[in-house]
Design a protein that fits this description.
- The relative contact order is 0.09.
- The chain has ten helices and eleven strands.
- It is of the alpha+beta class.
- Helix 4 crosses helix 8 and helix 6 packs across helix 8.
- About 45% of the residues lie in helices and about 25% in strands.
């Protein structure tokens, strides 16, 4: 006897809540099974299943064992496929269904330039990043038919945009006032006598990660303002002019450091130069002024591993 929708929904929710389920394998790991891949939680699937009604459900015999009913739920962009072999629930696949757009497709969007609801068309073009640090080339975007500005980015373009952004940020370069690199080097030396200029990337990478993952970006402008004011005060007390010397900072970083750096750029809306200056100001405050034992301990361990 075939399981009806209500019973199937009840039983699959019970399995997800209790953790009593298995994943179908066909000699390998099915990448479309997001639950097995750890890319979606049972709680997310429970919410999707609970939102389903009979119109979102389809049931058909298994292609190899017709006595087993295979259930498919399609709802909120999700495709969830499973069957029951007592006492277990077996998941075949769970993934989000993405609508694919093509060049020439049309639609409607809100255009910031026109300040109106406008008609748009999907085209391929090179699109600059908002901070002017590079561009994503030949990606599909929706453009306003009135002013020709980009008004929409379909999900299928996200991987190409993400990769273009990472490529831009794998080389971090900026020209800073020389005093900032002097301060960075002094902080490094205070942490370890063995820390040379080659380890600047290590110290900055540590701070990129710490600030990006601890919501510390909000305090960067204030830290930089305090540091800048202290520099001006010292110059004034010594009757010295503001130094004009600059030095170039150039670092090749891996994708993880680049991602943390990107997160800080997005959170602060600073330029690369201003962000680097602010991070160095934070390092100066933690290491040279506050002598934070936790931060210094972390950095010392990193130095010992790096040299």
């Amino acid at each position: 006897m075939k399981d009806g929708f209500r019973k199937a929904r009840h039983d699959v929710i019970a399995a997800l809540e209790s953790g009593n389920y298995l994943h179908v394998a066909r000699g390998d790991i099915e990448v479309k099974n997001l639950l097995a891949m750890g890319e979606v939680t049972a709680e997310v699937l429970i919410r999707v299943v609970r939102s389903c009604s009979g119109v979102h459900h389809h049931c058909s015999p298994h292609h190899a064992v017709p006595a087993i009913d295979v259930h498919v739920l399609k709802r909120l962009g999700w495709y969830i496929k499973f069957y029951f072999i007592e006492p277990d629930t077996w998941f075949i696949s769970e993934y989000q269904i993405m609508k694919i757009f093509f060049e020439g497709d049309t639609g409607k969007a809100l255009c910031e330039q026109c300040q109106a609801l406008v008609q748009m068309r999907y085209v391929r073009r090179d699109v600059l990043f908002s901070d002017s640090q590079g561009q994503a080339k030949d990606v599909l975007v929706g453009v306003c038919l009135g002013c020709d500005s980009v008004v929409a980015i379909p999900p299928q373009s996200t991987p190409a945009i993400r990769e273009a952004r990472k490529q831009q940020l794998k080389s971090i370069e900026a020209r800073l006032p020389a005093v900032y690199l002097d301060v960075l080097d002094a902080a490094m030396h205070a942490v370890s006598n063995d820390a040379g200029a080659s380890l600047r990337k290590l110290f900055l990478g540590y701070y990129f990660h710490a600030l990006a993952h601890a919501q510390g970006a909000a305090g960067l402008p204030a830290a930089h303002a305090t540091f800048s004011a202290a520099l001006e005060q010292q110059l004034h007390m010594r009757a010295l002019a503001t130094p004009a010397a600059t030095r170039r900072l150039s670092m090749k970083v891996n994708a993880h450091v680049a991602q943390d750096y990107l997160a800080l750029l997005q959170a602060t809306q600073m330029s690369q130069t201003e962000l680097l200056k602010a991070v160095i100001a934070r390092i100066q405050a933690d290491v040279l002024e506050a002598r934070d034992p936790a931060v210094i301990g972390d950095l010392q361990r990193l130095v010992h591993l790096a040299i």
